[in-house]
Each structure stands twice: as structure tokens, then as C-alpha cells.
From TrEMBL:
<dbReference type="Pfam" id="PF08240">
    <property type="entry name" value="ADH_N"/>
</dbReference>
<dbReference type="InterPro" id="IPR013154">
    <property type="entry name" value="ADH-like_N"/>
</dbReference>
<dbReference type="GO" id="GO:0016651">
    <property type="term" value="F:oxidoreductase activity, acting on NAD(P)H"/>
</dbReference>
<dbReference type="InterPro" id="IPR036291">
    <property type="entry name" value="NAD(P)-bd_dom_sf"/>
</dbReference>
<keyword id="KW-0560">Oxidoreductase</keyword>
<comment type="similarity">
    <text>Belongs to the zinc-containing alcohol dehydrogenase family.</text>
</comment>
<feature type="domain" description="Enoyl reductase (ER)">
    <location>
        <begin position="19"/>
        <end position="352"/>
    </location>
</feature>
<dbReference type="InterPro" id="IPR013149">
    <property type="entry name" value="ADH-like_C"/>
</dbReference>
<dbReference type="InterPro" id="IPR047122">
    <property type="entry name" value="Trans-enoyl_RdTase-like"/>
</dbReference>
<keyword id="KW-0547">Nucleotide-binding</keyword>
<keyword id="KW-0521">NADP</keyword>
<dbReference type="GO" id="GO:0000166">
    <property type="term" value="F:nucleotide binding"/>
</dbReference>
<protein>
    <submittedName>
        <fullName>Putative alcohol dehydrogenase</fullName>
    </submittedName>
</protein>
<dbReference type="InterPro" id="IPR020843">
    <property type="entry name" value="ER"/>
</dbReference>
<dbReference type="InterPro" id="IPR011032">
    <property type="entry name" value="GroES-like_sf"/>
</dbReference>
<dbReference type="Pfam" id="PF00107">
    <property type="entry name" value="ADH_zinc_N"/>
</dbReference>
Length: 357
């Protein structure tokens, strides 16, 4: 199997401009890289936020997208464990346009690529890596809570005897966080969502699902009951959810804990009202913010074993992809797909297929 020297890509020609379809080529393949034909790519809020806020983009024309699935079409000389034709999924590299995903082909370090199991489609696989890495960083990196990950010895017992609260359970990150919590052995996984998503989140492993329109800190404290609460993970990371996270830890009288949030691009910092609130109670609460970029050198100790193990979790039914909403039209669907995500979807991942004609 080979790949064309020139192919199509969705390119942002200048700051805040809409995508245009253009031809481009890849740079030379490094020894540790694979070339991937991108069969499906998912939309994440970071994609349109980068464009709208001119964030993380250092050079134009730019290529967005960092969440995809496809098949291997070329293998570097030092790569083992991958062969031409393998189905794979991966988190692209923001700002490295040869590793962006709103195009028909890309190249990636093989160590950051996971094999797609036979029980899921490319469209499902496309929406896994970025959101999962955000939750993995929040749970297992020292900048988050610092638990032992489930692929290491003792990791499946890391949450034993404890509860965890996950705010925004129906979001892409929230769904994967619920499943990581179960893989980590938490005995009481509590989340919130709209009532339409209650059954989905219970299926993914949540023990208690509260109505996000009604539940306050007292509701969460009641759901925690006598199980010690370890920490709150805020998958939404806006002012209201950060404040709620602090209030939950205070209502449950949880000492020396944190609300762990995800970086939302804009605003870039934690909410100062929530930070101040965390210091007004007998039980002080801190807020930590993480950025789950798996290609970052300081996170490779998590992203590489995640890539090696995640396919097996999926094959065994221990980790279920988000439901998908596929936008037809190949690369020409990119603006419609970005708009759908920006307008807001519930419990779904928006996907389009760059190699589709």
C-alpha cells in the first residue's frame, strides 16, 4: 500500500478565516514514524477555539484537527509492531501540521498510535484519543490527582474504598472519565447530566447520575454518603462547574483535595471566584488545571502506555467510544462539523471523513 505525494487538506489560510480545501505534501518520513490515511476525524472544542481565538497557532496557513482514525500506509525503518494496512487511532499533534488530522494523510510517531480493535468502526475510533488523554492527565499525572494508572501494578485498585465526582458526565471527556474511574476501581462514581443521558452514563459505569439542572452540592454530598470522596473532576471547566466542584468538596468535608479541571483554551486560567471560595472554608480546596497533550515530552510516560493498552480495553468491552454523528461530504464537511460542535451536541462526537470523496 502506498500514498500519493500530493493530497487534499482543509487549510486555514489566515487568522480566524474559514477552511479552504487545498493540496499539500508530507515531509520525509522519520525512522520512528508511520504514515496514516485518515479515514475519520473527530471535532473537539479546541479545534474551533484555536481558529476563533487564534490560540496555539504560530504559523499560517494552518491545519487543524487532532483526533482521528485510519490505516497505516507507510512504516519508518525503526518502527516495530505496526504493518501496512493496520487500522489505528491517535491524538494528532497540535501545531505540527504534518500530524494534524483535517487532511487525507498525516504522519505520527508510532509510539503515540493505538491499534483499532475489530469491534468498533473508524468513525467511533476517531473520537477516542484526545478526550481520553485529557481525562488520563487529570487522573494520573502529578499535575492532576496523581493516581496510579490502571495499566500499572496496583492501578486497578487506586480508587478502592473511595468515591469520585465527575461533573459533565455526558461530555466526551466526561464519558471517558467515568470509564477510567471504573478501571481505577472507584466504588462510587457520581456524575451529572441531562436526564436524556442518564441511561447512557449508567451503562458506562456511573453508580449515581444526578440532574445537572437541579442537583446542588448537597445533592452530591447525599450521593457520596459514607464513602470517602477522593476528588472532583470537572470535565466542563467553566465558572459555574468550578464553583460547584469546590462546594461539593466543602459539603462533603473532604480535606486536602482538589477540583481538577481541563484546559479550555479560552479562558486559559481557572476561575478566580472559585479559587477564592476554596479558601473560605474549614476544609481548604484547591483547583488544578491540566492540558492533556499526549505528544508533550512530560506526558509521554502516560500517552505511550495508553496507546499500547487502550485497544485491548475496548476489545474487552471495558471502554466504550462516544456515540457519533457523522457529517457526510469528506473534507468539504469541515465547516459544518465545526459549527455543529460549536452549537453544542449532547452525548455525541461529531465526525467527518477526510478521505471520502
Amino acid at each position: 500500500m502506498s500514498f500519493p505525494q500530493s493530497f487534499k487538506a482543509a487549510i486555514v489560510p489566515e487568522p480566524k478565516a474559514q477552511n479552504v480545501i487545498s493540496d499539500r505534501t508530507l515531509g520525509p518520513l522519520k525512522d520512528d514514524e508511520v504514515v496514516i490515511e485518515i479515514l475519520a476525524t473527530a471535532i473537539n472544542p479546541v479545534d474551533w477555539k484555536m481558529r476563533d481565538y487564534n490560540a496555539f497557532i504560530t504559523e499560517y496557513p494552518a491545519i487543524l484537527g487532532s483526533d482521528a482514525a485510519g490505516r497505516v500506509v507507510a512504516v519508518g525503518s525503526a518502527v516495530s509492531g505496526f504493518a501496512i494496512g493496520d487500522r489505528v487511532f491517535f491524538q494528532g499533534i497540535i501545531g505540527t501540521y504534518d500530524s494534524s488530522t483535517f487532511q487525507q494523510y498525516c504522519k505520527m510517531p508510532a509510539a503515540l498510535v493505538a491499534k483499532t480493535p475489530d469491534n468498533i468502526s473508524d468513525e467511533q475510533a476517531a473520537g477516542i484519543s484526545l478526550a481520553t488523554m485529557a481525562a488520563v492527565t487529570a487522573f494520573y499525572d502529578k499535575e492532576g490527582y496523581g493516581l496510579i494508572p490502571p495499566w500499572e501494578k496496583g492501578g486497578t485498585e487506586a480508587g478502592r474504598g473511595h468515591a469520585i465526582v465527575i461533573l459533565g458526565g455526558a461530555s466526551s471527556v466526561g464519558q471517558y472519565a467515568i470509564q477510567l474511574a471504573r478501571l481505577s476501581g472507584f466504588e462510587n462514581v457520581i456524575t451529572n447530566a441531562s436526564s436524556a443521558n442518564f441511561d447512557l452514563l449508567r451503562k458506562l459505569g456511573a453508580h449515581v447520575v444526578l440532574d445537572r439542572h437541579q442537583a446542588d452540592a448537597g445533592s452530591f454530598a447525599e450521593a457520596v454518603q459514607d464513602t470517602p470522596l477522593m476528588f472532583v473532576f470537572d470535565a466542563i471547566s467553566v465558572k459555574a462547574t468550578q464553583i460547584l466542584g469546590v462546594q461539593i468538596l466543602q459539603a462533603t468535608r473532604t480535606a486536602n483535595s482538589h477540583v481538577v479541571t481541563v484546559h479550555t483554551v479560552h479562558p486559559e486560567t481557572t476561575d478566580q471566584e472559585a479559587v477564592a471560595l476554596g479558601q473560605t472554608h474549614e476544609f481548604k480546596v484547591g483547583i488544578k488545571q491540566v492540558l492533556g497533550v499526549g505528544s508533550a515530552p512530560h506526558l509521554r510516560y502516560l500517552s505511550e502506555p495508553l496507546a499500547r493498552n487502550l485497544g485491548e480495553y475496548i476489545a474487552k468491552g471495558q471502554f466504550i467510544p462516544n456515540r457519533t454523528r457523522v457529517v457526510p461530504g469528506g473534507l468539504t464537511a469541515v465547516e459544518q462539523a465545526l459549527s455543529l460542535n460549536k452549537e453544542g451536541v449532547s452525548g455525541e462526537k461529531v465526525v467527518f471523513c477526510p478521505s471520502q470523496e
